[in-house]
Write a structure and sequence with these properties.
Blueprint lengths: L2 H8 L2 E2 L2 E2 L11 E5 L7 E7 L2 E11 L13 E8 L14 H14 L12 E10 L4 H15 L9 E8 L2 E4 L3 H6 L2 E8 L4 E5 L2 E2 L3 H35 L1
Parallel strand pairs: 6-7
Antiparallel strand pairs: 1-2, 3-4, 4-5, 5-7, 8-9, 8-10, 10-11, 10-12
Helix pairs in contact: 2-3, 3-5
The protein binds adenosine-5'-diphosphate.
């Protein structure tokens, strides 16, 4: 294959369209469902295109080990995990360094929203299971976990909406997928509490100019507002069906 052809193959944006047909500011189709597991106190299944993530919340409950309990608030414990079948090649089910780090990242993005002071000496456990990975799994995990926390009836200051912005072929794009993450120039996962106008997570992998950085935040906020609307709709649906029972 000539160098030109290889270059063309790698082009992520052509004629203003991304390889999956989206414009730069388009989000993938969102499908959110709340209360999908019977045994958990709260649960949610979220899809951003081909990225599919399940979250389950247990608690507030006895933390088990006494040393874990805090006298003034609940402890939040979080496990982010990718199922062995969630990637192209089988992923080892054992927790990787990446998963251990992301568990902490996700917990810290959710912590500002949860009113943990209401439940001293207890633990709230959040399990995030990536079922199908196509980029943006940490941000989808945050969205799913915040829906599952709401479903468990845990008081929160706001829902947390996760979204990633990337830079591909020199253009800022909303909600990057795996291919754009792999071949793009930057990936910036973010989480917002949209009605409070607060950011609970910003990470940046790659390089952006200062101007691009601020534009990426603005684009991320626009995306988070769409995610937030879909979250509220999923919760409304869930409670409408409860009323019918
Ligand atoms: P995020 O999923 O939050 O974007 P990364 O930037 O680390 O997190 O990963 C980008 C994408 O790369 C993931 O969504 C997934 O599609 C893919 N990926 C990550 N880890 C693995 C892995 N161990 N095996 C295969 N694909 C992976």
């Amino acid at each position: 294959m000539s160098e030109e052809k290889v270059e063309a193959k790698r082009k992520l944006i052509e004629g203003g369209k991304r390889r999956d047909g989206r414009g730069p500011e388009d989000i993938r189709p969102l499908h959110f469902e709340v209360r999908v597991l019977k045994n958990a106190n709260g649960s949610a299944l979220v899809q951003y295109g081909n990225t599919k993530v399940l979250a389950a919340v247990y608690g507030p409950r006895d933390p088990g080990a006494r040393s874990m309990a805090l006298p003034h608030r609940a402890v939040l414990r979080c496990r982010y995990h990718m199922a062995p079948f969630s990637t192209h090649e089988r992923k080892s089910p054992a927790p990787s360094r990446r998963e251990i780090e992301l568990s902490k990242v996700v917990r810290e993005a959710l912590e500002p929203a949860v009113i943990t002071e209401s439940f001293p000496r207890t633990a709230i456990d959040i399990f995030i299971e990536v079922l199908n990975a196509d980029g943006g799994t940490r941000t989808a995990g945050i969205t799913a976990a915040s829906l599952a926390l709401a479903d468990a009836g845990i008081p929160m200051r706001d829902l947390v909406a996760g979204i990633a912005v990337g830079k591909v072929d020199g253009v800022l794009v909303l909600d990057i997928n795996e291919e754009e993450d792999m071949y793009g120039e930057a990936d910036m996962p973010m989480a917002f509490m949209p009605s409070l106008g607060l950011i609970t997570l910003i990470q940046l992998n790659g390089t952006l100019s200062e101007e691009e950085f601020w534009s990426a935040i603005e684009l991320g906020l626009k995306g988070a507002e769409k995610v937030y609307e879909a979250q509220k709709e999923a919760l409304r649906k869930r409670y409408a069906s409860v009323e019918q029972v």
